[in-house]
Amino acid sequence: MKPTHPTGRTLGVLFLLPLLTYASGSGILSTVFDSPNYLSEAASSTHWVTTGALLVLANSIAVVAIGVLCYPLLAKLNKRIALAYVSARIIESVLLLGGLISLLALLTLSEAYVKAGGLNVPGFEVLAQLARAASFRAYQLAMLFLGLGSLGFCHLLYRHQLVPGFIALSGLAGYALLAVGAVLELFGFAVGVWLSVPGGLFEVTLGVWLLTRGLPFPPGSGSPARPAS
How far apart (Å, rounded) are the C-alpha atoms in residues 190 and 209? Predict the structure, then answer.
């Protein structure tokens, strides 16, 4: 059995966390803010919104942790790709947090709307639409950076045989489709959800593999292959 780096299983957990954090957190927030009467009802769902926001925040922390933990491992193989990957993960996290802040602004707006007696003031609806649009664009940009920034990561996984080839190749395809889907969404084509499925399946598969098998990096012994310049 090949010796493994202890960080590998931690990374496995972090890659699986979105199943419990962002997916459930964004689902809760969507339940509140996708309601036709969200301006009048969101103010009464503060606890749900807070729960969803904390889950999304946990995901953003996990995203940065993935980049930070991967950097010293990938840097032994290719420093430029390692830097690009950790940078993409940090940018993804910041953008997701920006989108979260925009949604939380809807909660404040809802509270003001209720205090105003639910008056049909155009300004409330305009501000709400701006907040929702900002959250949507922040998310799509986050997926664009994630997709593009992870291509090199998958290339290193494949080139240095850190995981089975089919997993690494599925990651290359999945992240490329994710980036394409994000661009299309920004141009008004609602296909991003479908094009994000392969990338999501890759992260689940990679997470399970790392959790059960680890990374073939003997602790403190460098990389399993000759580093790229």
Answer: 32
| pLDDT tier for residue 5 given thresholds of 50, 70 and 90 | low
- d(CA 53, CA 29) in angstroms, rounded, equals 8
Helix axes 122-159, 79-115, angle to 10 degrees: 160
Tokens encoding 123 = 């300004």
Q: Which of 7, 14, 38, 209 is nearest to 132 (CA)?
A: 38
In a domain, 170, yes or no: yes
CB 52 within 8 A of CB 25: yes
Kindly report whether the global pTM for this prediction surpasses the value 0.85.
Answer: yes
Average pLDDT value for the chain: 89
What is the pLDDT confidence band of residue 3, given thresholds at 50, 70 and 90? Answer: very low
Cα separation, 106 vs 43, whole angstroms: 9
In a domain, 103, yes or no: yes
Q: Token pair for residue 203?
A: 């992260």
Is pLDDT larger for residue 195 or for residue 7?
195
Asked if residue 229 is part of any domain, the answer here is: no
- Domain extent for 101: 7-213
Instruction: State the Cα–Cα distance between residues 140 and 98, nearest whole angstrom.
Output: 12
- Report the chain's C-alpha Rg in angstroms: 20
pLDDT, tens only, 39-54: 888 888 999 999 999 9
Beta strands in the chain (DSSP E): none
